[in-house]
Specification:
The complex is a heterodimer of chains A (about 150) and B (about 100). Chain A is mainly alpha-helical and about 150 residues long. Helices cover about 65% and strands about 0% of the residues of chain A. The chains are: A mainly alpha (about 150), B mainly alpha (about 100).
Chain lengths: ~150, ~100
């Protein structure tokens, strides 16, 4: 289907670049390395389910953003409701993009029988969500103090 | 066809519940257009959302059929397409919120 590039395997270099800015990595989403050998289909399907779980995580963030805009009363800080809604929607989109990247990296690692790629993304996402929750708590308290 | 670990069925169900999650997001994005005095922008965005959701269902359906093969291959196009549609709905949602 796609042209075969037997020599293109190799280990990933360019450790300095940020994952989502490294354009070689983005190209690999479309143009897979036909390296190594196709893993047991059950492993590929497990990878696919992990991808889908991340997509649902992104969709849940997006649903939270839309619900925030539609069901919250205006908050104590002007426009904070819209800012939170937009931030959650953007975060959901980012999670979806990252889901593809992670899927492709795992698929590649499995073909090459390498260790699965480590990721700091879940920790970063957790911190961002926690900070957002903290911001909301502070806003609610400010609103309560003003009443 | 043996399927130790029921990985085909679990994957099919994973696609299905992801589609249901997308439906929930889609309905929230469409909601402003159901208001009696919804503007044309809200209606256009709602139509785009429904088109995107239909495309997601189509991708998932195709993929679920591919799972019936004896040796289901990894599907880069389905994964990329599904994620792209998710991002598209996120963008539409952003417009729904800000417009």
């Amino acid at each position: 289907m796609v042209h075969v590039r037997p020599g293109a395997g190799g280990l990933r270099t360019g450790t300095g670049a940020h994952p989502l800015v490294d354009n070689r990595r983005v190209i690999k989403w479309w143009d897979p390395d036909r390296v190594g050998e196709i893993p047991d289909y059950r492993f590929s399907l497990a990878n696919e389910r992990t991808f889908l779980a991340w997509i649902r995580t992104g969709l849940a963030l997006m649903a939270g953003g839309l619900a925030c805009a539609q069901f919250l009363p205006p908050l104590a800080i002007a426009h904070l409701r819209e800012v939170i809604a937009t931030a959650l929607l953007a975060l959901g989109g980012l999670v979806a993009v990252r889901a593809v990247d992670h899927w492709a990296r795992i698929e590649r690692a499995m073909r090459l029988k390498q260790d699965l790629p480590p990721s700091r993304f879940p920790a970063v996402l957790a911190v961002v969500v926690a900070l957002g929750a903290l911001l909301l708590i502070v806003t609610v308290l400010i609103g309560a103090a003003n009443d | 066809m043996t399927d130790p670990g029921a990985s085909r069925e679990r994957t099919r169900l994973a696609w299905r519940r992801t589609g249901l999650s997308a439906a929930a997001v889609g309905l929230l994005a469409v909601r402003p257009a159901l208001h009696p005095d919804a503007g044309p922008a809200a209606i256009v965005l709602a139509a785009l959302t429904m088109a995107g959701w239909s495309a997601m269902v189509a991708v998932a359906y195709r993929r679920a059929r591919g799972l019936n093969r004896p040796d289901p291959a990894p599907v880069r196009r389905a994964v990329l397409g599904y994620a792209a549609l998710t991002v598209g709905i996120a963008v539409i949602g952003g417009l729904v919120v800000t417009l």
